[in-house]
Each structure stands twice: as structure tokens, then as C-alpha cells.
Here is the input.
Amino acid sequence: MEIYDHPTFRMACRQFDLAADHLELAESDRGRLKWPKRSLTVALPIHRDDGSTEVFTGYRVQHHLTLGPTKGGLRYHPDVTLGEVAALAMWMSWKCALCGLPYGGAKGGVTCDPTQMSRTELERLTRRYTQEMIPFIGPQVDVMAPDLGTNEQVMAWMMDTYSVHAGHSVPSIVTGKPVGLGGSVGRREATGRGVGYLINRATDTIGLDISGATAAVQGYGNVGSVAALSLARYGVRIIAVSDARGGVFNRNGLNLWELDKHVAAHRTVAGFPEGEPITNDELLTMKCDILVPAALERQITETNAGKLQCRILAEAANGPTTPEADVILEQRPEIFVIPDVICNAGGVVVSYFEWVQDLQSFFWSETEVTDKLFRILENAFGRIVALSRKEKISTRMAALTLGIKRVYEAKRLRGLFP
Ligand code: NAD
Here is the structure.
């Protein structure tokens, strides 16, 4: 499977291999579980605003089809490759299985820099990508959602393009849509809110008083900003945040209300006057109780894992910690890791709720959504902590084995086809 070769894909495979060893899976079962079932690469020519034509590359990977349609986000970022998308699709599989959702994992991406594109260019790109994906997606086939660099508006354009093709409105083709188009209340906040909920549970688990604890958040985007707000509501002081353009630090705690106004005006946290500048590297190793990487993969590596000074590492991003860093963290029991497959699962759980609501055309209140979300996260978190204690394995190994085992059992029951 050389077409997927990429550091992030190798990392996802390494994690899978370690979990498969722990589960003592037969060699003959491993390939079926590991390799993506399908992938599609498309060329996306669009007109730029200056009249030129540019061709972008888009991808979609569907990891397994055993438990239902595939589900996963769409990423717009300059570094997107097929291998990265495949790794993210694999993690989605274990995440959905761990949370008991009736989905296989998927992921999509377009190699582009959305910060350098106008709104009309982004709309053309999104509509063209959706058009090219039509034979490959559907409410019972593959359902997309926002991820890095995409948002509710992108989902609205996708839903519209697909619906025009179908000849009627198909809200269930994407999740993370605006509420006015059949989106779910609480979806935009779901990932960050879930991160906050699980950090609160982790503080109970290790006996840390959450009120007055300190946190640093790398990546103040959708997930990072909502996670920060959610933590602030538990009484946590957010002492540092960052984004792709820089970071800001204030030992007494940042005023998130003022910070959000600064971000709305400048599209970055950098330069926020009520704090001092801090680099992303400094943020990751600063002294704080809770560290929340909420940006990109492979941020905690063998270089900085030994220098972390947090008590809780809450992996809001997908794949922020490399397997080499995991080896170091396993020697540091003072750090409790909330692994990505559960930490950021709130997004796909509420995406599932949105899909169910769209299929039934029957919509729930925000209280119902949040209650049901927390119940699913609570159950998965409890099983992870119990397994990790019982088998004396890391929380990541516990989470991955629970997810992989469910997919393995479904494949065993069904046979070779899916
Ligand atoms: P987003 O685009 O809204 O925000 C990403 C943030 O990270 C931005 O502030 C960006 O400037 C920052 N960033 C980018 N490169 C950076 C770098 N090198 N250093 C520091 N900051 C950097 O994206 P998002 O939806 O918040 O996604 C963030 C992470 O959460 C991703 O790993 C994504 O896969 C994961 N995730 C998102 C969801 C969701 O519902 N949106 C669900 C599950 C997981």
C-alpha cells in the first residue's frame, strides 16, 4: 500500500500494529482491518478571481464499510496528502467503533490554503469537489463534516451541490451544517465541549482540583476555542493559547471574551494586548495543569515529550502525539493522557445525532443533544480507564484496542466482503 506512504499514515499503522499485538490478532486478520477499503483522488480545476484557472487536488478515503456508512471530516490545508487523509480515516474508524456509532471511518481533504482564497473561490472549490465526489458519497454511503480549514458554510455549499444533483434537498449528506439547513444544535460546540467534559472527568480520576487549574491550548480554532471556554466554565484559568500565526501568554489567565473580540478583528490570537507573545514550541512545554493540543498531527514528539510539564494531556487534535513520544509518556505516569480517539469524539457523536435527526426529520433540543453526548463519552471514558487499569496498559492502547476489537468482531461475523 505504498500509495498511502506518509509519516502520519505510518504513525497510524504503528499504533494499529501495537494494538493488534496486544489483542493477539492473527496476521491474516490484520490487513483487512488496517488498509483503507476505498480511496478516490480528483483533480479540481477552478477559476480564480483574477481570471486564471488553477487545478487543486482532492481526496476521500473510506476506511471500512463493515458497520454502516463511512463518516469523517473534510480538511482544507496546504499539507493535505492521500496518506494523511488515510491515517485520519483509520482513526475515525476506531473512534466511531469505540463510541458505538454505526459507521466506518472516512476522511477527505483538498490541498489548498483556505486563508489565501476568497469566499467565492472557496465556494467554487467546494462545489467542484462535491461534484466530483457524487458517485462516491451518499447518506447511506459516506457522510462528510467540517475539519481543519472547513466550516458550516462549506458544509452548506456541499449540501446544496449534492441536493441540486439529486433534485431535492438531502440534508443528511453532510453534518456540521448550519442549523437553518437541518444542522443539529450543539454540533459546532460538540468537539470542544466533549474535550472539556473529558478533562473534568480526568481531573476526578487523578484527584486534581479543576477549579483554579491552569490550561494551555495549542490551536485556537473551532475545537480549541470552545474547549477553552468549556474549561473556563469549570473554573480553569486559560494561561496560553496559540494558532498558526503565534501565541499569547498571561499567567493570571486570559480574558476569553476580550480574546475572541481580538480574533474576530485580526483572525489570529497573535498580538493580543493583554498578554505576552509565546511560540507554539514554548506553549507545549510550559508549566500548566492541562495541555490541549488542538491543531495538527505530530506536535508531541520524542524531542519534547520528556519536557512536558502538564498533569493532563488532552488530545483535542487528531494524532498530536507520535508513537516515539508515547514510549516516553509511558515512563511518565504523572501525566494522564486522554487519547484523541475519545478526546475529540464529541464531534462525530453529535454528527451522528445530526444524521439521525435529518433522516427522521425530527429535531432535538440542545439539552437532549448535550445529555446524550455526555452519556456516550462517559461510557467510553469509563471503559478506557477500567481496561487501562485492569491490563496495565496506556489509555491510548486501551482506547484503540476497544475500537479495533469491535470492528474485528463485526468483520468476523460478516465474512470477507465488507
Ligand atoms: P480549525 O481550522 O477551526 O482550527 C485550527 C486551528 O489550529 C487554527 O487556529 C489554526 O490557526 C491553528 N493551527 C494551524 N496550524 C498550526 C500550527 N502549526 N501551530 C499552531 N496552531 C496551528 O480546525 P478545527 O476544526 O478546530 O480542528 C482542529 C483539530 O481538531 C484538527 O486536528 C481536527 O482534525 C481535530 N478535530 C476537529 C473536529 C471538529 O469537529 N471540527 C472533530 C474532531 C477532531
Remarks:
- The two ends are 18 Å apart (CA to CA).
